[in-house]
Design a protein that fits this description.
Elements lengths: L1 H19 L1 H14 L2 H6 L3 H15 L7 H10 L10 E4 L9 H7 L3 H4 L8 H9 L8 E5 L3 E9 L2 E9 L9 E9 L2 E7 L6 E10 L2 E2 L13 E2 L17 E7 L2 E6 L6 H14 L7 E5 L8 H14 L4 E6 L6 H9 L5 E5 L8 E2 L5 E3 L5 E4 L3 E2 L16 E2 L6 H11 L1
Parallel strand pairs: 11-12, 12-13, 13-14, 14-19
Antiparallel strand pairs: 1-7, 1-17, 2-3, 2-9, 3-4, 4-5, 5-6, 6-7, 7-8, 10-11, 15-18, 16-17
Helix pairs in contact: 1-2, 10-11
Length: 419
């Protein structure tokens, strides 16, 4: 009887703690949300379920998160780390009022929130000197976010890296503040937590890649630049299509080569109408012996939209050769389309490995706030075929890798001429 009473008191105490402790409440809520996702249901079972339970218990016991805003976010993010589901999004909710104009920004940088931002305690000059000597192929070194600020990225622990601001031309980032945390899960593949360049809220990038001396996925929505963190500031970006590139395009690039670009398979009314008009205009126009199909930075979308392009290319391959341009910005339905097209005769893929974001998806773009109202998760509710999981986090390699230092269309033309 005494044992039963003691256990009852313990469980009641734990329940009251979860109700009154924002961290424990958020942790429990996030776990409950994730347990409903297709990725959790298909991946977290058996041995993985036991490991996940151990992880959760450790996070519950970690009281350091209660006094450290970064540790709070990092502990929550760790519940997402084991899931191979790159459509999941998780971030700290920013207060956009603080960044509406320069006056608001200047006020923000005097607040306790700004002054308490994670800070490097070491000597910046010594750090900069040590990182300058690192080889280019190393993840460690000095990275630039455009012309705005530079970050020294160094190994801080076992498979863990921290990026510290070394120089800054913007008031929002001051020397010594920590802008990047990377957690390596495979060679040159990381779980990344960034401070957003403009709003400084923490944001999880579930897959980050170090390639071509850059962190390829370090783009940020609603930032003041379209930069990524890179060791060299590129004069011309040949890998990615410019943001203002038409979503649908067909043009002649040589007598025997046509160029077809498709940047979206979204099924909303506007895109669906534009896609239908475009397809109708080109279905009898693919007459050249060779076709460059550009799927760079294609944002994905609906299967029913992509299927129409599968039919178009299938018909074309009966008479011509297809060369598909892909890059790290080729995501979701565009990656699935690439896998389907690779099965056709007379097709080759050129460029860069795709992002690896194709096994899951979201029908409704649902977002859920955690009880503290400080964090939000973008929830997935769609599951693709099991075979696609082999490419999640990793991506699809091209048949032929292209050089990032020269025009990709011109490189594709040269390859066509050699075949």
């Amino acid at each position: 009887m005494k044992l039963l009473l003691a256990l009852t008191i313990i469980f009641l105490t734990l329940g009251l703690q979860a109700q009154t402790d924002p961290y424990l409440t958020d942790l429990s809520a996030l776990k409950a949300i994730l347990q409903k996702t297709p990725s959790y249901k298909s991946q977290i079972k058996g041995k993985q379920l036991a490991l996940y339970k151990d992880l959760y218990d450790r996070l519950v016991a970690d009281t350091s998160s209660k006094v450290n805003s970064y540790k709070y976010f990092y502990n929550l993010a760790q519940l997402i780390f084991p899931l191979k589901d790159n459509h999941l999004g998780f971030y700290q909710i920013p207060d956009f009022e603080n960044f509406k104009d320069q006056e608001r920004i200047e006020q923000f940088i005097t607040t306790k929130e700004f002054l308490d931002y994670p800070q490097f305690a070491g000597n910046l000059d010594s750090l900069k000197s040590a990182l300058t000597a690192k080889p280019a192929e190393s993840i460690e070194g000095i990275f630039y976010y455009g012309q705005f600020y530079s970050v020294g990225l160094f190994k801080s622990g076992n498979k863990e890296y921290i990026g510290v601001v070394l120089e800054s031309a913007v008031s929002l980032w001051q020397k010594g503040q920590v802008a990047i945390h990377l957690y390596e899960y495979a060679p040159n593949l990381f779980k990344a937590i960034y401070g957003h360049p403009l709003t400084k809220n923490f944001i999880l990038h579930p897959v980050e890649k170090y390639q071509n001396q850059a962190l390829l996925n370090s783009y940020f929505y609603n930032s003041y630049a379209q930069s990524i963190y890179a060791k060299q500031l590129p004069q011309v970006d040949w890998v990615n299509l410019p943001k203002n590139t038409p979503k649908f395009e067909l043009r002649q690039v040589a007598d025997d080569i046509q160029y077809l670009a498709v940047r979206t398979f979204q099924a909303d009314l506007s895109n669906a109408e534009k896609s239908a008009v475009f397809l109708d205009s080109v279905k009898n126009s693919l007459t050249a012996a060779n076709l460059i199909l550009d799927l760079r930075n294609s944002e994905g979308g609906a299967k029913k939209m992509a299927r129409k392009y599968v039919q178009l290319i299938r018909e074309y391959t009966k008479k011509g050769n297809v060369f598909i341009l892909i890059n790290n910005g080729t995501v979701s339905q565009a990656e699935i389309l690439t896998l389907r097209l690779k099965k056709f005769k007379n097709t080759r893929t050129l460029g860069q490995t795709t992002k690896g974001m194709l096994s899951y998806g979201s029908n409704y773009g649902k977002r859920e706030k955690l009880p503290s109202q400080h964090f939000e998760i973008y929830v997935t509710d769609m599951k693709g075929p099991a075979r696609l999981l082999n490419y999640e986090d990793i991506g699809i390699d091209p048949d032929i890798f292209l050089d990032e230092h020269s025009n990709w269309i011109e490189q594709a033309i040269k390859i066509i001429r050699k075949l």
